[in-house]
Amino acid sequence: MQTQDGIGQIQERSVLVLVVNWNGADMTRDCCASLAAQTHRNLHVRVVDNGSTRDTVEALRAACPGAEVVGTGRNLGFAGGVNAGLRAGEGAAPFDYVWLLNNDTVCDPDALGRLLSAAEADRRLAAVGCAMREADGRGGERRVAAGKRMRPPFYIPLEPREGESPDYLCGASLLIRREALAEVGPLDEAFFFFFEDADWSFRAVAKGWRLGIAAGEPVRHLGGGTIRRNSRNRSRFYRAGHVRFLRRHARHPLLAALPPFAYRLAAEILRLEFAAARGSVEGFVAR
């Protein structure tokens, strides 16, 4: 149980919330509305418009009153958008934590408080994630783990088994400690849309940091709100991200990359998802 002094210290922690938007003003509005209702009040919301073709910075400011809105001018990918948001605050007083939050999320009022409580309980936690709730396709919701396992040799993201800890934390809701961010560095912008969170987690652990998970499921995640499932772009970015991750973290990257690529490509062709299959090939050759 936390003492009154401990609770007071948590309440003093300053948090920069980074929300990256790409053609999703309605979802971003709902996300920001949930942030305005957080019980932890020492937060600053910065919305990064990542080169939207439909949304404007002015429209986002109207949709998210109280949030700072900055624009990149072009789509830099998720990692690039996050890093642009970090650069936008250079020269200002530093925050204690940075909370990466997908724009297709809605947070319970105590979501940030739960993340901070976990982070403050262990100063060697580089980052804290949380389980999330997603629609199950049958009118209900299902629980999604805070992160995934990446078992060798293929390092395919899999749900942790009962009692297992994840090897990486999902970037859809990720609270990062300032000191860890300074030591590990920002997200790698060469990951356009997938695996940047896995890469950052692996880099943090390699430097001796640990990963933590907050209690409960305080975030609802729409999922796929930015990029359509089974699309050419989704397949291309996923495959390119997986290959880049393997090149950085696997002992034999090419041998690890070929079987998952071949399996996914065959499955897409058999399902007649030719656009997705083309994206998989493009992502693999772009390695």
Domain unit count? 2
**The CATH topology of the largest domain is what?**
Spore Coat Polysaccharide Biosynthesis Protein SpsA, Chain A
If you compute it from the alpha carbons, what radius of gyration comes out, rounded to the nearest whole angstrom? 19 Å
CATH class of the largest domain: Alpha Beta
CATH superfamily of the largest domain: Spore Coat Polysaccharide Biosynthesis Protein SpsA, Chain A
What fraction, in percent, of the residue positions are helical?
Answer: 40-55%
Describe the structure.
- This protein has 287 residues and is an alpha/beta fold.
- It has 2 domains: 4-221, Spore Coat Polysaccharide Biosynthesis Protein SpsA, Chain A, CATH 3.90.550.10; 232-285.
- The chain is built from 10 helices and 14 strands.
- Strand 2 (43-49), helix 3 and strand 3 form a beta-alpha-beta unit.
- Helix 8 (232-249) packs antiparallel against helix 9.
- It is globular and about 55 Å long.
What does the secondary structure layout of this molecule look like, with pairings?
Elements: H1 4-12, E1 15-21, H2 25-36, E2 43-49, H3 57-63, E3 68-71, H4 77-87, E4 97-102, E5 105-107, H5 111-120, E6 125-129, E7 132-135, E8 141-144, E9 147-151, E10 156-158, E11 168-169, E12 173-177, H6 178-184, H7 196-206, E13 210-213, E14 219-221, H8 232-249, H9 253-270, H10 274-285
Parallel strand pairs: 1-2, 1-4, 2-3, 6-13, 7-14
Antiparallel strand pairs: 4-12, 5-14, 6-12, 7-8, 9-10, 9-11
Helix pairs in contact: 1-5, 7-8, 8-9, 8-10, 9-10
